[in-house]
Specification:
The chain is of the alpha+beta class. The chain has eight helices and eleven strands. The protein has two domains: about 25 residues, no CATH class; about 210 residues, Rossmann fold (3-Layer(aba) Sandwich), CATH 3.40.50.10480.
Length: about 325
């Protein structure tokens, strides 16, 4: 056996097979073990820089190999994302499904899509709103054509809804606030519902948006609805679509976008500009906000006796990061 110095032992001297030399491995090293904060941060930055260099070198190597192979190069691998690894939902809508087409032809939004009604919207707030919520409602009314803002003071929603129906309003939007910040949106389709309750976050008014365009015009905007693929998502998408006039006025070059990503609905309002025959630029007009569906209720708003079609239950529904409902 060796003596620990890396030299062969007595067996090798006696003519027998040489004993294997002991390999001394370097001790494992972890940046987190460095006690000095500045030194630890410096070593971490060096490690990250080395990782980036290795990643860039591997990318260049793969590109050269693909150029050398030419047409024989294998297809590029599709990167794994949470979206393309989404758990299949059995309620995902097939565009050619006759049952879905029949349901949509007879649901509460059918009069709008059959052009029997014209959107007329009432925007109101929680009781005694603050300045930021009031400004948000005013800016939201410039996005939704034929909308009217009502500053609510102590009047219950159950009394507001019959008055809206009597005055031919098709939708009621209620903006709730907490600590002077808009944090909720209630959307009720009149006269028969449904009613959706959203949590609102990331609200940005026009003055808080960088490189914003000029004030929006009164033209009816185009509407873009992205990634509303399930039956629940279709209902929410149809609810948003029914807020806007049937025929957009393309001369206004304004677009309202509801983009669903991982059950978060991002709203943006843009104007596009033709820079040349081939190049098009966009300007954000604002406001912007993000919605998260909390519940969908049948009929108009009824907090005590309302029948709910869908309620978001975090502990039961959010068990997988790849499971989405819209």
């Amino acid at each position: 056996a060796g003596d620990g110095s890396g030299q062969p032992g007595s067996a090798a001297e006696g003519g027998g097979p040489p004993a294997p030399q002991r390999v001394l491995f370097p001790p494992t090293f972890s940046v987190s073990e460095i006690k000095n904060k500045q030194r630890r941060h410096f070593m971490f930055l060096r490690w990250k820089q080395q990782q980036r260099k290795e990643k860039l070198a591997a990318k260049k190597k793969r590109r050269k190999e693909r150029e050398a192979l030419g047409d024989k190069a294998p297809p590029k691998a599709i990167p794994k994302t949470i979206e393309n690894q989404r758990v299949y939902d059995e309620t995902t809508v097939d565009p050619n499904d006759e049952e879905v087409a029949f349901d949509e032809a007879t649901d509460e939004f059918a009069p709008y899509f059959n052009r029997q009604t014209v959107p007329k919207i009432l925007i109101t707030t929680s009781d005694r709103p603050r300045g930021r919520t009031v400004r948000f409602c005013e800016q939201l009314s410039t996005v939704l054509p034929n909308s009217h803002v009502y500053y609510r003071r102590g009047l219950a929603l159950k009394r507001i809804i019959p008055q809206c129906i009597a005055r031919d309003f098709t939708d009621l939007i209620v903006i709730n606030e907490d600590r002077n910040i808009p944090n909720g949106l209630l959307l009720s389709h009149l006269p028969d519902g449904p009613t959706a309750h959203f949590r609102m976050s990331s609200v940005r008014l026009r003055k808080e948006i960088k490189r914003k365009g000029k004030e929006p015009t009164e033209h009816a905007p185009e509407v873009i609805l992205n990634n509303f693929t399930t039956r629940l998502g279709h209902s929410i998408g149809r609810m948003f679509a029914s807020l806007f006039p049937h025929d957009p006025q393309f001369t206004g070059r304004q677009v309202a976008t509801f983009h669903n990503q991982r059950d978060y609905i991002f709203f943006r309002f843009h104007r596009y500009i033709f820079k040349s025959e081939k190049k098009v630029g966009i300007q954000e007009l604002g406001p912007r906000f993000t919605l998260k569906l909390r519940s969908l209720q049948k009929g108009t708003f009824d907090s005590k006796f309302g029948e709910y079609e869908w309620i978001h239950k975090r502990r039961e529904m959010d068990t997988s990061r790849r499971k989405f409902h819209l």
